[in-house]
Write a structure and sequence with these properties.
The protein is built from 15 helices and nine strands. With 392 residues, it is α/β, with parallel strands linked by helices. 49% of the residues are buried.
């Protein structure tokens, strides 16, 4: 099966309305945390524009650490491997008060004061609204709940993009973040090396209009069918597991075509079951615009609407100079989704950069930051050391 056909199959299977039937086959964030032997809480935070986003907490006596996932994954992506392996549990074992966010519109954050996911207006958002409305609301909520004045923010991929948007548009919140840790930091998207990702992202600039015409509001929601396929094609006793690994390499940036030794193949069906989690067409359109323009800027509505919204025919750039909190970024030389040159360009524009660190493995890829077995030695230990230097 060609790569293009595999991607098409995934899109066909995933562009549908999620059903509640069959969800028992997919463990949720609360169940995964409990399975690892930890207590958890689920909180709901209301954003300024009426969205309700979910936040999961592993209570601890120490300072709060907030983790935000990337595109097409959710809070559960941080807790799939278990105690002693996932960064979340390492933080909890050191006494931190750990909070896991969920982006608006994903499997855990599908509620609004006025609209439902069946309404097209519900999906009229991109990463801009996540940064301008959701992050400030969640940060305030976490700080109010814990009694602290600031927190450590750890983002992966789109989770970093949200923070850069927030810093530019809501700079008063920068002072509530005492340290930002970026994994595969994403603001510039112009140097994709993999043809599949480049085609997918650059085509996405027209997704919002296309899916609107055909009446599809959500792209690639979570579905129980994914879990069934994962068990059939990705388990250790399946003859197609290698194909499954290759598929995940091309679509999610997991492992390397020449070396999947650091991917836990026993857990591969669990990984596959938990993606995708849904996204708005407008989010993909925004990312596609950034890829084509080579800029980190607001959503481009076209010259006429831009003029009405922004006062200029072109959307303004997000001002990265306002990201004044201390930042440490980690990037992978083998990352097929966030090119190392884009990550370096971003870091060079940050006014309070501690370090921009290449992971000491030239094959280290995008989802390896979350799911690779060697992430502990290559990334997590360094993160734990840095966070310890910024006590709350």
């Amino acid at each position: 099966m060609s790569v293009a056909l595999q991607v098409l199959l995934l899109l066909v299977l995933s562009v549908s309305s999620p059903s509640q039937a069959g969800w028992s086959t997919i463990t949720n964030t609360t169940e995964l945390i409990s399975r690892a032997g930890y207590q958890s809480e689920k909180h709901t935070v209301e954003s300024q524009d009426g969205f309700h986003v979910s936040v999961f907490r592993i209570p601890g006596p120490g300072a709060p650490v907030f983790l935000m996932h990337g595109l097409f994954v959710a809070s559960d992506s941080w807790v799939l491997r278990g105690k002693g392996r996932d960064l979340v549990f390492m933080l909890a074992d050191r006494g931190y008060d750990v909070w896991l966010g969920d982006a608006r519109g994903n499997f855990y954050s599908r509620s609004h004061n006025t609209f439902t996911p069946d309404d097209s207006v519900f999906w009229d958002f991109s990463v801009h609204e996540m940064g301008v409305y959701d992050l400030p609301a969640v940060i305030d909520y976490v700080l109010n709940a814990t009694g602290h004045n600031s927190l450590v923010y750890l983002g992966h991929s789109l989770g970093t993009t949200m923070m850069y948007v927030m810093s530019a548009r809501r700079p008063e919140y920068v002072y509530k973040v005492r340290l930002m840790v970026g994994l595969a930091p994403a603001a510039f998207f112009g140097r994709y090396r993999a043809a599949v990702q480049r085609f997918f992202l650059e085509s996405s600039s027209s997704y919002s209009a296309y899916f609107g015409r055909v009446g599809v509001h959500e792209v690639m929601p979570r579905t129980p069918l994914t879990a069934v396929m994962a068990r059939l094609f990705c388990s250790s006793n399946s003859p197609t597991q290698r194909l499954c690994l290759q598929f995940f390499y091309f679509t999610a940036g997991l492992g390397s075509l020449s070396d999947f030794s650091h991917v836990n193949k026993t857990l591969l069906p669990e990984f596959v079951s938990h993606v995708p989690t849904g996204a708005s067409p407008k989010t993909l359109s925004h990312l596609g615009q950034l890829s084509k323009s080579g800029r980190f800027c607001n959503y481009d509505y076209g010259s006429e609407e831009n003029l009405a919204r922004y006062g200029s025919s072109s959307p303004p750039d997000y001002d990265l100079s306002k990201t004044s909190m201390p930042v440490i970024n980690f990037y992978g030389e083998g990352d097929t989704l966030v090119d190392s040159r884009d990550a370096t360009e971003l870091s060079a524009k940050l006014p309070n950069l501690i370090a921009n660190i290449a992971v000491d493995n030239p094959l280290f890829n995008h989802m390896d930051f979350i799911w690779a077995e060697d992430a502990t030695d290559l990334v997590y230990q360094r993160i734990l050391e840095v966070i310890a230097k910024y006590p709350g």
